[in-house]
């Protein structure tokens, strides 16, 4: 090979195409994002949309599920449910149960969060307290229900303590007395639910700039003024979001009520969830149960809309 030949450019064939392939199918189509979402959309359709549609359809029928061919009765089942005194008692109990629980969750949660966020406690002590305070949140509802039923048993530790120290002359039927059942299950729900607020508010407190507190102290603000003028305004978006979300969850509470009182005694702890369940699986009136479920769905949707609007305003 001569030198001139070696310096001549080497002829090459066409290089293989390394870029994107030709656009075909859904490539570049506006339907392409929906193709990626289709598995999730199908699952949501099968597990959510179809059952909800079936429940709405059953609410307009008479003797749905229990007979081969049921009759369309329109809004009759809704009139039956809305005209039932037990339904309104369950609604009142649910609203009272949820409202007190959410308020107590916030008060206890922010108190413990501020304690764990303060510099008064040493790091080791704060770690121990964090473990203790979050324990109720780690238990399942079944464990919580069984635990408190044992503690509140007529022969349980709670009655032993109140009789030993002379607080009461006899044992109290905490879950069987209509005057104490609702406050007791509300207390149990507060006990097992406050860590949700505590953890979220603790994260929010740790995100508040220290400069704000230093500026407040320079202006002469004491601890109380700092709390109401610095801490609460900074935590306001988190508090509103959590309060709405917790209220939605609490109104849907079923397992705790069912495993402690079953809605009794004499409907003292009847909730919308237990009322609907009894219509379906105790009275076998699936049409009325469907109508009650649709009413609960509408109420939940109102709360969900408020939550979404609050989240958008926060963003």
Verbal overview:
- By secondary structure, the protein is mostly helical.
- The chain is 69% helix and 1% strand.
- The chain contains 13 helices and 2 strands.
- The chain has helices spanning 3-7, 32-58, 76-82, 85-117, 123-138, 141-151, 157-164, 181-206, 210-218, 223-251, 255-260, 272-281, 286-314; strands at residues 61-62, 71-72.
- The chain has a two-stranded antiparallel ribbon with strand order 1-2.
- A hairpin with an 8-residue loop joins strand 1 and strand 2 (71-72).
- Helix 4 packs parallel to helix 8, helix 4 packs antiparallel against helix 10 and helix 5 packs across helix 8 (181-206).
- It is globular, with a radius of gyration of 30 Å.
- The termini are far apart.
- The relative contact order is 0.12.
- The mean pLDDT is 87.
What structural category do the secondary elements indicate?
mainly alpha
Q: Uncertain segments of ≥5 residues (pLDDT<50)?
A: none
Can you tell me the overall shape?
globular
Radius of gyration from CA coordinates: 30 Å
Number of strands: 2
Beta-strand percent range: under 5%
Helicity, as a percent range? 55-70%
User: Topology as H/E string?
Assistant: HHEEHHHHHHHHHHH
Contiguous helical run count: 13
Through-space gap between termini: 72 Å
Calculate the mean pLDDT score and round it: 87
- Order of adjacent strands in the largest pleated sheet: 1-2
Largest sheet: 2 strands, antiparallel
């Amino acid at each position: 090979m001569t030198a001139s030949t070696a310096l001549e450019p080497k002829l090459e064939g066409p290089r293989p195409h390394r870029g994107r392939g030709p656009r075909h199918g859904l490539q570049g189509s506006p339907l392409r994002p929906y193709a990626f979402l289709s598995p999730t959309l199908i699952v949501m359709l099968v597990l959510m949309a179809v059952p909800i549609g079936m429940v709405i359809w059953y609410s307009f029928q008479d003797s749905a599920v229990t007979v081969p061919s049921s009759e369309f009765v329109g809004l009759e089942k809704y009139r039956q449910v809305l005209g039932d005194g037990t339904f309104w008692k369950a609604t009142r109990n649910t609203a009272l149960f949820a409202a007190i629980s959410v308020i107590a969750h916030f008060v206890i949660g922010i108190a413990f969060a501020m304690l764990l966020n303060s510099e008064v406690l040493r790091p080791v002590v704060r770690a121990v307290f964090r473990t203790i305070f979050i324990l109720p949140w780690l238990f399942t509802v079944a464990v919580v229900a069984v635990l408190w039923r044992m503690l509140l048993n007529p022969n349980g530790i709670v009655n032993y303590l109140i009789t030993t120290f002379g607080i009461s002359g006899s044992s109290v039927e905490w879950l069987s007395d209509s005057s104490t059942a609702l406050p007791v299950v509300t207390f149990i729900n507060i006990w097992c639910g406050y860590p949700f607020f505590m953890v979220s508010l603790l994260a929010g407190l740790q995100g508040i700039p220290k400069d704000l507190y230093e500026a407040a102290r320079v202006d002469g603000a004491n601890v109380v003024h700092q709390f109401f003028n610095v801490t609460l305004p900074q935590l306001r978006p988190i508090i509103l979001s959590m309060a709405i979300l917790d209220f939605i969850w609490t109104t849907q509470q079923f397992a705790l009520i069912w495993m402690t009182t079953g809605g009794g005694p004499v409907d003292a702890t009847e909730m919308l969830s237990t009322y609907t369940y009894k219509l379906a699986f105790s009275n076998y009136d699936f049409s009325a149960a469907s109508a009650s479920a649709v009413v609960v769905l509408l109420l939940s949707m109102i709360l969900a809309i408020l939550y979404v609007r609050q989240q958008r305003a926060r963003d």
